[in-house]
Amino acid sequence: MFVNRKAPHGSIYAYEGLEVILIFGAYDQEISAAFLDDAVLSLKKGQDTSEIGTKEFSATFRVLEAYGVENRYVERESLEQRGLTEEDLVMDVEVVDGATLRKYMGEQDVLLPF
Amino acid sequence: MATLEVNGKQHELDEDGFLANMDEWNEDVALALAKTESVEMTEAHWEVVNFLREYYAEYKIAPMIRILTKAIGKKLGKEKGNTKYLYELYPAGPAKQACKIAGLPKPTGCV
Amino acid sequence: MLHIVNKSPFKYRNLDTCVRVSEKEDPIILIEDGVYAALKGSSIEGLMKKTLEDHPVFAIRADLKARGIDEVLDGIEVCDYSCFVDMVEKHIPYSWL
Amino acid sequence: MKFGILVQEGPYNHQASDSAYNFIQAALEKGHEITGVFFYNDGVINTTKLMDIPADDRHISKRWSDLGAKGIQLIVCVAAAKRRGINPDVLIENARIDGLGQLSELCIESDRLITFGD
């Protein structure tokens, strides 16, 4: 499982993390992705990086499903802390609380932080 | 840096012959890029190129081959959604060659 | 699951999220700047004490020593890299970077 | 047990590569196997041989190269390396530049994958 916790644009982690997810998806591995803390901001609608000159990649998260990332979790509290709801996000996700996310994380063989 | 002249205009290419500035793409540029790859553009070729451009416009990436075949099969018909069909059109590899002609950035090649 | 925390709790909220997304008894290991959470009498002592009620907490000796921390909060177990390796052997690790 | 290591942060700037190295040493001493070290993000900068380090400090890239000489594979992500100007010309000995697919392989081969980063 990819556990993403970082905001986009300010650093490259979110973007390079996404690149890893896509490659793993192409490898046909069973993968899932979780977004918590600032990573939920990567999924926020309406991002336009044209004036800061970095690559805009929020749209790319929408291919995760096609790349075989069927389980996409967002932690509820992280959303709430940032004043966001599911409707503010660019893709369909399952919003779960921390305890549920912990349960899913506990079922994994590998947890990759990005 | 190499350039490609199309209709009297110079277009910069990167070291692998990909269009350096995506915004300069048009159909004539595509034809010139196809020539550098020795690809004769037929309607079937355009179909793939246009598909890639639409995909890129929506998702900001070029799909990997496995995803490309699946998505093409869905959009253009099952008989076209396979690697063999795409390799017949683009022998050097659909992801790389078709992306180049479509004026998309070169795949990062991280696989 | 083993939670690895490498950030100073005074600058980052990693420890908060780690505690929120963890199960009782999940061990937490403090490494690098994460060991500052082991300071006695700090402003986050309350959070740490609460954390210690539910989780075994470890701190890497070399990182504490490097930062001049001779005394850690009661309940935090000081361990070396060898015990860090043992813990990763026992649990699937996740680094709260 | 088989441990895979992921290093996400550059040398000197952050303690991550030191922690990774210390962890690997301890694991080897205990008789564990290191399936490989994968360098990603700024972690790829660990593998340039252009580092010029004063004698009173650790030489991080040399340290990695020595580890590679012991047969531990050091894999540098090609996409991350290209972004940061790391290419075969500047790469330390005993490391190789390869695709992210190798990280996927590392995950499969290892009993545990542990990440060091920022």
Q: Please, could you describe this protein's structure?
A:
Chain A is of the alpha/beta class. Chain A contains three helices and five strands; from the N terminus they run E-H-E-E-H-E-H-E. Chain A has a five-stranded parallel beta sheet. Chain A is globular and about 40 Å long. By secondary structure, chain B is mainly α. Helix content of chain B is 49%, strand content 7%. In chain B, strands 1-2 form a two-stranded antiparallel sheet. Chain B starts with a strand and ends in a 10-residue tail after the last helix. In chain B, 26% of the residues are buried. Chain C has a single domain, classed as Hypothetical Protein Ychn, Chain: A. Chain C is built from four helices and five strands. A five-stranded parallel beta sheet of chain C has the order 4-3-2-1-5. Chain C is globular and about 30 Å long. The mean pLDDT of chain C is 97. The interface between C and D is medium-sized, with 18 and 21 residues.
Flag low-confidence runs of chain B: none
Q: Give the biggest beta sheet of chain B.
A: 2 strands, antiparallel
Task: Decide which structural class fits the backbone of chain B.
Answer: mainly alpha
CATH topology term of chain A:
Hypothetical Protein Ychn, Chain: A
State the helical fraction of chain A: 25-40%
Average pLDDT for all residues of chain A: 95
Task: State the assembly state of the protein chains.
Answer: heterotetramer
Number of domains of chain A: 1
Q: What is the CATH domain class of chain A?
A: Alpha Beta
Strand content of chain B: 5-15%
Terminal Cα separation of chain A, in Å? 11 Å
In total, the number of strands of chain A is: 5
Strand content of chain A: 5-15%
Radius of gyration of chain B: 13 Å
Uncertain segments of chain A: none
Labels describing this entry:
heterotetramer; C: 97 residues; alpha/beta; Hypothetical Protein Ychn, Chain: A; 4 helices; 20% strand; D: 118 residues; five-stranded parallel beta sheet; 5 strands; globular
How are the secondary structure elements laid out?
The complex is a heterotetramer of chains A (114), B (111), C (97) and D (118).
Chain B lengths: L2 E4 L2 E4 L14 H10 L6 H17 L5 H12 L6 H7 L4 H8 L10
Antiparallel strand pairs in B: 1-2
Chain C lengths: L1 E4 L8 H7 L7 E3 L14 H10 L2 E4 H6 L9 E4 L1 H10 L2 E4 L1
Parallel strand pairs in C: 1-2, 1-5, 2-3, 3-4
Chain D lengths: L1 E6 L8 H14 L3 E7 L20 H10 L4 E4 H6 L11 E4 L2 H9 L2 E5 L2
Parallel strand pairs in D: 1-2, 1-5, 2-3, 3-4
